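Box S2. Input/output pair 1.
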Amino acid sequence: MIENVSAIASQVPKTKILVSYFQAAHHFTNSRKLMNRIVRSAIITLVVLSCTSSILFFSIQSASTLPKSAIELPASIDIAQKIDFSRHFRELGVEGAILIYDLNNDRIFQHNPQRNATAFLPASTFKILNSLIALETGVISNEIAVLTWDGITRSIPEWNRDLNMKEAFKLSAVWFYQVLARRVGYERMQKWVAQAGYGNQKIGSKDDIDKFWLAGELRITPQEQIQFLRRLYNNDLPFSKRSLSIVKDIMVNEQTPDYTIRAKTGLFGFDDNLTPKIGWYVGYLEKGKNVYFFTTNIDVRNQKDISARIELTRRCFKELAVL
């Protein structure tokens, strides 16, 4: 049998053996090339996946170290950019900023973000906190307790009489709140301003006790005003429910069957020759089951600009279909 196989093999032409050999070698070479390509592709895929995983890991790690507001801010800004408040500033001829926070939808709408992050004297918007501190410390018993006018004639006629807190808040009577601040005293005032986390919490020296919110060191940004107002609304400030309830009541600026606006105006530079002065309008609007916190901050160059604070805010709310 073996001899027969050998005989048959000897009859096969050598050329056919060579052809079969080269064909096999060519097939082997192609297989190696294919295998090399597969290996290279696998290596490249592994490298790409590794880099992608690293990027995702560090992105998640970085995001986890940021405050919640910082993570959510880009989305909020994108929403805000779909609403253009700038035309209202142009039509009213004023320069400034506005910031509105929609609580239920967690949305921020704003004009001039840079100014909304800039600190200013709070001026009479500090009357919100001043009222809380005065009530909590007992230097005034309630919103209808009267302080006797000191007889000094001031530039606003409505101030020149005896006033209770509710009237003084609505008229923004400076002398009334200066009396309250002096009664509270420097140490207690500093303690309460710090505990409330209000702005930069600096009330200056003891001599500044009755003017630090008008011409002193105290500063607050529009963003911080919103934070303070949210804590007020949520009863998250270090004051009794009674004090918070009274202040919320005297803050009512407008009330209809559809909505309620609780707010306070402010004007920095009222008694000096500075131009422009800075005008504030801060508060929150309750409508249905939602709340909109707002702060408007503008340059005041003339009498017309003073009333523009409220008008500007209302126009922006109409833009949002809230009013």
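Box S3. Input/output pair 2.
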Amino acid sequence: MKGLFDTLLNKIRPIVSARPRVLAAHFPPDGLLYHYSQYNLLESSTLHIDAGQVAYLIINEQYTPAYREGEYPLDPDNIPQTETADILFLNTVAIANRLWQSAYQPSQRPLDQPLSGTYSVSIHDADAVCRTVIEHQAINLDDELIDQWVSYTIDHTLINEHISADDIENQAEALQNFLKARLRTQLNAQGLTLHDLRIGRRPPAAKAERERRAAYTETPVFAPARENAAPAATIAVANSATVSDTPRSPLSEDKIYYRVHHGQQIGPLSALDIQKLIDEGQILARDLLWQKGMTAWLPAQAFSHFNWN
């Protein structure tokens, strides 16, 4: 009798113990991305999504509709033609506070230490983030992928604008606002909202250099050195208002404009000067302009009185 009981118990034990595996995200502090790589869909499992999270199955560079709060049995019969899938979890309620570091070095005089700082970001469009992760084939990087996006955008901006070591050391607040505006636009397209960006504290420049730059210009490079720079939404609204059928007023000869060219502030310029540079192709729609009285730089296309035809 005892032998028969042991035999039955051995047959039942695998059935009892074969509970579905629960797949849940284990986000680190301030984490936004978490993944399972090439998960075996033939294994009995349940997808568990907490409030404020979404998840996607990524199969052959295609993703399923978002799974939202709840539990979802992963039945292979409902996911045909594959045995494995990447599973991407996104935290849509957290604001991540992270570090960034740039590899940029000015050509004329290198920096004593790398340019670095902090940034805070959150997810506003989970589908856009998922698409971008797939395009970069970088699901294994998790939050480090966002760090790479931020550092790359900063490096790319500094290189294109030929930012000098003097600008970095003496105009840190203005540069910070300039980079913040650029990053907001870039990250917004990837489904991310940039809440803040800070440049780390750097050793002060020599007194003579500070005095020289103070005497050189009474307006700062890149943007007025104010913390309350216009948010990305302001730029977006301005951009959407550039196309208008209303007649343009005559361009003024008052020299109230400044532009950034190869990392240098150029101006003051009149509206006629700006229009001439636009016509010659020296100012592009995305190039930044500043007008007296503004609190932040805006793309040239945001100024509706210029003609881009």
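Caption for Box S3: The CA atoms of residues 185 and 232 lie 6 Å apart. Residues 12-17, 206-246 have pLDDT under 50 and may be disordered.
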